[in-house]
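Workshop exercise sheet. Pairs work together: one partner reads the sequence aloud, the other fills in the structure field after running the prediction. Swap roles for the next sheet.
Pair: D.N. / O.F.
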Amino acid sequence: MKLLAVRRLLRIQRVVIRYRLDDLLFELPLPWFLLALRFALPWRWFPRRTLDLSRGTRLRLALQDLGPIFIKFGQILSTRRDLLPEDIADELMLLQDRVPPFDSQTAVKLIEAQLGKKIGEVFSRFDIEPLASASVAQVHAAQLKSGEEVVVKVIRPGLKPIIAQDLAWLFLLARAAERVSADARLLHPVDVVSDYEKTIYDELDLLREAANASQLRRNFEGSEMMYVPQVYWDWCRPKVLVMERIYGIQVTDLATLADQRTDMKMLAERGVEIFFTQVFRDSFFHADMHPGNIFVSTVNPWSPKYIAIDCGIVGSLTPEDQDYLARNLFAFFKRDYRRVAQLHIDSGWVPAHTKLNEFEAAIRTVCEPIFEKPLKDISFGQVLMRLFQTARRFNMEVQPQLVLLQKTLLNIEGLGRQLYPELDLWSTAQPFLERWMRERVSPKTLLGNLQGQIEQLPHLASMTRDLLERMAQPQANPEPKEHRSKDDWLLRLLGTLHLSGGALLAVGGPLHDLGQWPAGIMAAIGVYLIVRR
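Structure field:
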């Protein structure tokens, strides 16, 4: 692996020199001693072969040459037109679905090897020219023998060695950053790279993408906001995916959307609602929502519907993460900065000794100026930069499990900026969060949670009996000290569950006709298990 990593580093260096990407660095306002460094770089002593190419074209071609990890980085940047010059953003847009395809005959051989059949035995028509090509795979249009119009997605050959080499260097840089920088340690770069490693390798498994697409389709079955194409499972393999072909307008084709009189305001608002629905209602969100993966249906432009493809990267949150984010966002929308600060301290994102008043004032200073402004008047790049500065000041830690969510939110914000710059992100999201939080504490939800706890009672009772039997015969069943402490912890956990169940039964009222004695018994058992020695 070390030899491959060294070879990869030399490859990256050659691409940087070939396309003179150092020009982009030296265009920045750097200190004089760094600017003077350019005269010491040997490759700058010779004429540049790429002189006739624009800086955006050179950057795009360099990212293409370097492979899927770099291409995906360019895709994320392409949605941030507020952070990039227009000429660079326009070029990086081409990385979303116009990456040069690989040989079509190679694609056919890969498909036949995966399916175990000749192309003609499965498809009545197969277009040899790819319909689209991206960083990890390319897509061909086809028609099944049964008549359905489909697309066939096939993974590019030889990706894993390149990805492994790139990840080796990313891990090396992340570990070095953690060793030399306290600020870097707060960002957990090694954990972030580890999460990205899992994500990129998952994307190479098209059976996982098919499963993600099926789940997302079920979540939005019958929805007026989003449609997910059907997966044809009989012809899906680890490196081949066959799914329904969709016909729509690419979300960034603003001219065509305007020609069909699309309600752009509703389209932008539905994009925000889809995002929050996936995150909070389903805890299952499409985490690769760059414009190349999003289309708009041509049916009912006055009530526009999104069409989502390429579900290779999805994210999910634990109930604790959901609750934490919702309470933070709700307090943020209410401008309750003290509550936001307290939640950060309670969750452990900042040290417990942090002064609440100082942290509250810092958050207010960053966030207050962006309220009551449309997206077109807000620079999220500057806001994020100031938030990171605040994070360093208060030793705030970045949570790696939320990196995908942050990336998706950036994509959504960049897309909304293009579709409808007047969109008020806060007023669009706030009603959804308020409704979701009301549903979280509704009687129906509480009863559902209680039912789940009651279903666990036989199992918990069995565990309790086994633990009590072992504790009643310590000589017959000698256990190490750490096991006894673990059993003690489990008993306290059981006690907490009993006490919680008793409290819920006590306030349930109409839940039962047996009076309050079951609640009292459960609560008494809980108290005994918690306080016993």
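Discussion prompt: The first strand starts at residue 123 and ends at 126. What would you look at next?
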